Amino acid sequence: MPGSGASREAASAGWRRAAARRRAARRAPQRGGSYATADGDAETWVSTWAALSGTVRAQAGKCAAEGRAVSARDAFLRAAGYFGTALVAVDGCADPEARLGELFTEHRDCFDHFAAAWDPPAERVAIPTKGSRCRATSSARRAVPERCRR
Fold it and tell me: Is the pTM of this model over 0.70?
């Protein structure tokens, strides 16, 4: 049988990343975004989506400053999604750890702004698991046991 299990696994992971990029690219115009990346160029993919994320995040901040809470909330969610889309190809960048740290921090901050603006506001919770805690977000405050609250 040609190819090792590791090479098949790498090919499968590459296919999944490519499929995720195609889905995101198809959806971008529907969500008020645009894209222009060379297929297989991870740095261009990440930089393009990060730039779009920054633009949408700035719009969210402007909406918030103008008192347009729903528009700000929705823009923060869109920006978080675009930062998440940028993360799809971060492994192909020259310094993936640095890019991951930078982009995930921005992604999480945008999502936290969105969650805080939700009605009722969502809160971060830690769900006890065997040996650790799983972090999650809930908007149903009464349903979250006190021991799980942050």
Answer: no
